[in-house]
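Entry: Exosome complex protein C1739.07
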Amino acid sequence: MDPEYSELFERLNKQLDNVEDVLKPLKDAESIFELAEGKSELEQAKLYITMSYAINSTLYSFYKLNGIDASERPVMQELQRVKNYISKIQQAEKNVNPKTEAVNTSNAAISSSSSNRPKVAKDAATRIIKHHT
């Protein structure tokens, strides 16, 4: 076997081992809701939206690998919606103090108007996960 391919296979094998380690809690949990239990709302939202993104991007990859035009499928709309939630979660993380998870009121734009704060649609994230599990 070509040494270049051998090195690539070795790297792939290590990466797959890392994926298995990361996914082990999902495998051991009865449900995603059990996995989310005890986490903050922000952490739960991150978990739900990450799972939704993983499921939808896998479906997108399946379509592409089978020569199906994924742009005509609802998965594209779902991926865009999930990406919007990801950006909202990232924005929310910037506005939350990680130790207390209290909103950072030193930012004048946030303290002056609560309508500027991003809101994570917990119910929507839960529906997405229920739909895909």
